[in-house]
Amino acid sequence: MTDEIIKHSYIHFKSRRFHITLLLMIGICLFFFARTNLGLSMVCMVNSTAVNLENSDFNYTNSLKIPDKCLKDDKTNNNDQKKAKDYGGTFNWNINIQNMILSGNFYGAIITIVPAGILADRSSPKNLLLLSATLFLITSALFPYLAYNYGYVPLIASRIIMGLGEGISSPAFNHILSNWIPKSESPVAMAIYTSGVQVAGFIGNPVTAYFCDSSFGWVGVFYLLSVCLIMWSLLWGLTVKNKFHKDKWMHEKERNYLEAHMTNHKNKGFKKDFSIPWMSMITSLPLLSTLICNFFAMMYNFFVTMYLPTYFKDTLYVSIMDNGFYSSLPFIAQCVSKIGWGYFMTHLQRKQILTSTQSVKLSQAVSGVGVAIGLYALPFLNDCTKPYISVGCFLWISAFFGVCVSGFLVSHIILAPAIVGLISSLFNVTAVIGAIASPWIVSFLKDPNNPESWNTVLYVLGTLWLLSSIVFVIFGSGEPQSWGIMKEVHVDDLLINGENNNKDSLDLNETKL
């Protein structure tokens, strides 16, 4: 293989695998925004004044123990602390109804997670993503109509249906990435692809706020999203193939490069039937360590996306406009850090300075220590008179959290190339469990009448993330495991060796680690 082919650039405007990564990034951005925009839209939909007046047990005077030094800067409730903040919503839904609508997608996702992983391994991940996008599109487009005409029960049902699409998407996303990206480029590719989450978080809140404040109202968010999903689905369906060697726009040099460097794709002449090594999989320490990290990573993500604005409101007493701006900044820090660090890890692997395993373990160690330091330090640095200090601390925390993309997240698509869809499904299961557990854990740790109780939440998050990172550093791996590698025996070989025709030569290796 020539040096020209060996050094074929990944980040280049003519690189087809880069094009695929960008399409994946846009797709995950739209899917994530479809799931999370309701968090801010709900504020515009609900008449919070009426809801709070119905809650006769709510004590406005003692709801927050505001320090004296913060009273003069308190902008959360204008002149009258006893009036709930309201943005002209019309729906009189109490907090329980709101939570049911917001969490409906998790219950839908858990239904399709495992079946979607198996389907991604045995069918077309491209078509699965089209199906997922269709479910997101239909439920988003119908959401305003259902809300105004049928009430909250159909809305909960629509969120559950959206969750069905969400459960399908992750295994398909990861399977496409695994079919197109060599192992050495996985850190930067995973960083770019998953940055769609941060793009959705940084752009989504201002866009939602704009529509809520405009003549379109909150319904405009769902219609805009529906149009974007249609455009992405058309582009995806017309330009993407499941595997790189079927792509008709790829340059021959890039095709030769991928043929030489890809170890996780199966050629057309190979049989597709294989058995799943369940026992070897569920007892694999490298896999279990990634699942543990994923569970606690979801807890952190849930905190940032759902609780960070409340944290800023309770501890810094900032205005809603400042809160929206401050809450979006960590997404930028996370996006920049994970792409930069991913590129750095890819460079070190190409120079053979680090192996794949050393790369994922180093990345996870850096993330675990950096995040823990930030979360431990924040309670001592938090000052309502200097909010920029707390915001800067969260930038530090999010930047180091972004590094973990090159750690356990890269590891999980490398461990078992033959069943990457199923592994992604297991990841989704742990993520959904983490998302469901997070509100309960926060509610247990936090006193709603004492803002300082947020410190306990921060300490617990930092400790859990550090411990899970240590587990991965000890047991994690960046290499394909024996139980997850397809024995690639060509059909022609089976015909020549007739005595082996009755044996499935493509069974997965059942050797236990």
TrEMBL record:
Coiled coil: none annotated. It is found in: Membrane. Keywords: Membrane, Symport, Transmembrane, Transmembrane helix, Transport. This is MFS domain-containing protein. SUPFAM superfamilies: MFS general substrate transporter. The chain crosses the membrane at residues 20-38, 100-120, 127-148, 216-238, 276-304, 324-344, 365-382, 388-410, 422-445, 457-477. Residues 20-480 form the Major facilitator superfamily (MFS) profile domain. The keyword Calcium does not apply. GO terms for cellular component: membrane. It is a multi-pass membrane protein.
